[in-house]
TrEMBL record:
Family: Belongs to the FMO family.
Protein name (Swiss-Prot/TrEMBL): Trimethylamine monooxygenase
Keywords, ordered alphabetically: FAD, Flavoprotein, NADP, Oxidoreductase
UniProt superkingdom: Bacteria
Species this chain originates from: Tistrella bauzanensis
């Protein structure tokens, strides 16, 4: 069997795993049920609709050593993302290592290794491997509420099958869910439907893609002078909120203080949402309200095209709100109720080891730093993570491949116990947060520390200062260490730095001043 690695899935996580295995000198093959790579970004049988654009910038929705084409815009379209992933596979010679149309249906032990059984269009294919990387991700299957099934005539569907608004012209449509996909789908349909209702359980902040940049992130030529009294520039949300300096600042604050600060900041950006709709009034109650990046929803509500209501019950083709005051006729119901992983192909002992619960939308599996199962060797997971995922899953893939190749050590027992305690605490947290690992800078840096690819954060250089003050980018983790690509990484970082007014040419500063900043 040599040193072969089998990878389940050829979406973004699977491609990252295939590339990482190749870097480690491993023979690897990826099994993909679809006819092309790209996973959820596949235009024909993925989970995207034609008008979709990323809600995070191209600098975050991309791999560390494969930048997007500049003409993709700040927020690439679904078609651009699919093309990007195909280009990534070609550029790194991955296409010949993908077995398309192969759905893995069973994984069993085979001596010291593993046997995979894949359904290749009705023909069963067996593959033996030393190790397995599960890269099928958290978007493997549509999640519907208990008792709900999709209808053959399309009257009841899931957002996974939505491609555009054309079939809903003149109809009465209810979209269940007001998070990322539900919000944008409801807003788009409201442009042609006779009536569009978006059902929500609780208010969320609806924030535009571009938000004001805090003055602390901008570069000022003379730090002794107050910042200029100019309107702050607007940049993508992911470039504004994911800075190491800000993450370090809030780490010692109480959850109530963090919630109050974020409430005030978001209210400054979007205003009083209660004036937009009473059900969107976000209470300042010490809890972190969900945040949804959507440019379209506020305008759709303000224009009257989109109505917002609370959770409802359905009876055939009528909708009855819990307060009993409405009994509305409905033509179509779209459930934008999220997605779940699919791990039924794994043996029972692995599913038990990871505490697999497909109904747990926050934390469906328990893995050490979202990669390794407790007590199971030769298996790793990539992409079991919800958040700004390209940078995280690439680091996950590099760590998994490094351990499976033998170059890096697996987590020892104390480290595994600490990591699993963190994951169990996340699952048990009440009230449940919007995302399981909300500290994106720390998440990335913790994985990078395992790989010994952390960038130098010494602030005696312009680069070091921006690495600390600016956003965390996947390119940070190609500056040094194994498989570094420093020239390309610096070019991407410099491009982002210029958006904040930072010049990354060498400009030494007083070391004592730098040390003081690092201590804050």
């Amino acid at each position: 069997m040599g040193r072969g690695i089998a990878i389940i899935g050829a979406g973004p996580a699977g491609l990252a795993a295939l590339k990482a295995a190749q870097e480690e000198g491993l023979e690897a093959v990826a099994f993909e049920a679809r006819t092309e790579c790209g996973g959820l970004w596949s235009p024909d049988d993925g989970l995207v609709w034609r008008s979709l654009k990323t809600n995070l910038s191209r600098y975050t929705c991309g791999f560390s050593d494969h930048p997007h084409d500049p003409d993709s815009g700040l927020f690439p379209s679904a078609a651009r993302m699919a093309a990007y992933l195909h280009g990534y596979a070609r550029a790194h010679d991955l296409t010949g290592r993908i077995r398309h149309g192969h759905r893995v249906v069973a994984v069993t032990r085979a001596g010291a290794g593993w046997r995979l059984i894949a359904d290749a269009g009705g023909r069963m294919v067996e593959y033996l491997a030393d190790g397995v990387i599960v890269a099928s991700g958290v978007f493997a299957q549509a999640a519907l509420p208990p008792g709900v099934t999709v209808a053959a005539d399309g009257h009841i569907s899931h957002a996974a099958s939505y491609r555009g608004p054309e079939g809903f012209a003149g109809r009465r449509v209810v979209v269940v869910g007001g998070a990322f996909s539900g919000a944008d789908i409801a807003a788009e349909i409201s442009g042609c439907a006779a009536d569009t209702v978006m059902l929500i359980r609780r208010p969320a902040w609806y924030v535009p893609r571009l938000v004001p940049v805090p003055q602390a992130m901008m570069n000022h030529t003379n730090p002794a002078q107050p910042p200029p009294r100019l309107p702050p520039p607007r940049l993508p949300m992911d470039l504004v909120v994911n800075a190491r300096a800000e993450a370090a600042r809030v780490r010692g604050l109480s959850p109530a203080v963090i919630a109050a600060e974020r409430h005030a900041w978001l209210r400054d950006i979007v205003g009083d949402q209660g004036l937009l709709h009473p059900l969107l009034q976000v209470p300042d109650d010490g809890r972190l309200a969900p945040m949804v990046i959507s440019d379209a929803v506020p305008d759709a509500i303000r224009s009257g095209r989109l109505r917002v209501m609370t959770a409802a019950q359905f009876d055939a083709r009528r909708m009855v709100l819990h307060d009993g005051r409405h009994d509305l006729p409905v033509d179509d119901v779209i459930y934008a109720t999220g997605y779940a992983p699919r791990l039924e192909m794994l043996p029972a002992d692995i599913r038990a080891a990871v505490g697999y619960d497909p109904d747990d939308r926050l934390q469906p599996v328990l893995l050490a730093q979202t990669v390794f199962p407790d007590g199971i060797s030769g298996v790793a997971f990539v992409g079991m993570y919800r958040g700004p995922y390209f940078g995280v899953m690439e680091l996950q893939a590099r760590w998994a491949a490094g351990v499976l190749s033998g170059r890096l050590p697996a987590p020892d027992r104390p480290a595994m116990e600490r990591a699993m305690a963190v994951e169990r605490a996340i699952r048990d947290q009440r009230p449940r947060p919007q995302f399981p690992h909300a500290d994106y800078p720390d998440m990335c840096d913790a994985l990078a520390a395992r790989l010994d690819v952390m960038p130098d954060l010494e602030q005696t250089t312009a680069l070091g200062r921006f690495l600390w003050q600016g956003p965390v980018l996947p390119a940070h983790y190609r500056l040094r260490g194994a498989h570094a690509r420093p020239a390309g990484a610096r070019a991407v970082i410099a491009e982002v730095a210029a958006l904040f007014g930072h010049d990354l040419s060498p400009q030494p500063v007083d070391p004592s001043s730098s040390a003081q900043q690092r201590s804050l």
